[in-house]
């Protein structure tokens, strides 16, 4: 039997909601706690389903979302599947008036039917839709460079990235910062990357001068100012420098002063 094209998709029309997706899922730790979850083109809205009058909605802006993934739980007897979305909204710092981006993970269990495959497919559909909706947001947000008034580059996804880390930058902490913070974010954002730990002065310059740049969509430098200058010099020394210098560059502060990263961040506000 053919599906009636005019019939409303139940995931789009529920409880008066009309957007991209609507669903009801449970808490990952407690099946008794249920949430209504709705996805529009700009936000993910979560509301706990309960009889109490206090049913506060939590709204996450998709411009703060860096990724979403679907997965099966570790228990093979579990018929449910899961999806987790990763947000980095600005929040007030503890004991401070300033705000900073802070990680928030929103995870749900999908157990609509007894068939685990169907549940996994539904979790994947949600993960896909959340990723797609948040892709519209400039990928530079992830690197803290957005929105730049000039020279903004919308990166393709998946964004194949070469990450250059100077292990001696910032009193030797750049590599630790990478493994402690950045690596997990890259995984959450499904960013495929090649990590290059520089071994000597001018290593990055020589590498970038001779690299096949078609393999990467962006070069990200995690260091102080020095390594970025090396990379720019390497790009400018190429025969195809006019095209090479168009390669999107990102900067993650890993040095001691980080003056350039601070300036870029300032002008991106
Ligand atoms: N493995 C390495 N060993 C020695 N020198 C390196 C290595 N990798 C890069 N360099 C050089 O170190 C210089 C300084 O690096 P960078 O600016 O990244 O760090 P920093 O001096 O700690 O930072 P800041 O500028 O914030 O003080 C760079 O110009 C680069 O040529």
TrEMBL record:
GO molecular function, one term: ATP binding
Subcellular location: Endomembrane system
Pfam families in the cross-refs: DAGK_cat
GO-annotated cellular components: cytoplasm; endomembrane system; membrane
DAGKc domain location: 156-269
Main location as per UniProt: membrane
Gene3D superfamilies: Probable inorganic polyphosphate/atp-NAD kinase, domain 1 (3.40.50.10330)
GO biological process: cellular response to growth factor stimulus; negative regulation of apoptotic process; sphingosine biosynthetic process
Sorted UniProt keywords: ATP-binding, Kinase, Membrane, Nucleotide-binding, Transferase
Keyword field contains Transferase: yes
E.C. code: 2.7.1.91
InterPro entries membership: ATP-NAD_kinase_N, Diacylglycerol_kinase_cat_dom, Lipid_Phosphate_FormReg, NAD/diacylglycerol_kinase_sf
Protein's name according to its UniProt entry: sphingosine kinase
Organism: Poecilia latipinna
């Amino acid at each position: 039997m053919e599906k009636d094209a005019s019939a409303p998709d139940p995931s789009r029309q529920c409880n008066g909601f009309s957007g991209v997706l609507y669903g009801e899922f449970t808490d990952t730790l407690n099946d008794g706690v249920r949430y209504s979850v709705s996805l529009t083109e700009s936000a993910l809205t979560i509301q706990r389903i309960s009889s109490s009058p206090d049913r506060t909605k939590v709204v996450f802006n998709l411009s703060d979302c860096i990724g979403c993934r679907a997965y099966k739980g570790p228990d093979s007897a579990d018929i449910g599947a899961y999806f987790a979305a990763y947000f980095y909204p600005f929040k007030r710092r503890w004991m401070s008036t300033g705000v900073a981006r802070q990680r928030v993970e929103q995870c749900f269990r999908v157990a609509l039917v007894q068939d685990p495959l169907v549940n996994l497919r539904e979790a994947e559909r949600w993960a896909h839709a959340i990723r797609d909706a948040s892709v519209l947001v400039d990928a530079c947000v992830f690197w803290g460079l957005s929105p730049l008034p000039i020279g903004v580059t919308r990166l393709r996804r998946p964004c194949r990235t070469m990450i250059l880390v100077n292990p001696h930058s910032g009193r030797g902490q750049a590599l630790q910062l990478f493994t402690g913070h950045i690596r997990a974010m890259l995984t959450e954002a499904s960013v495929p990357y090649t990590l290059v730990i520089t071994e000597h002065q001018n290593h990055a310059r020589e590498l970038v001068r001779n690299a096949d740049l078609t393999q990467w969509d962006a070069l990200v430098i995690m260091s102080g100012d020095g390594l970025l200058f090396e990379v720019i010099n390497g790009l400018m020394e190429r025969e195809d420098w006019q095209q090479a210098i168009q390669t999107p560059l990102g900067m993650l502060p890993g040095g001691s002063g980080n003056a350039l990263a601070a300036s870029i961040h300032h002008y991106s506000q």
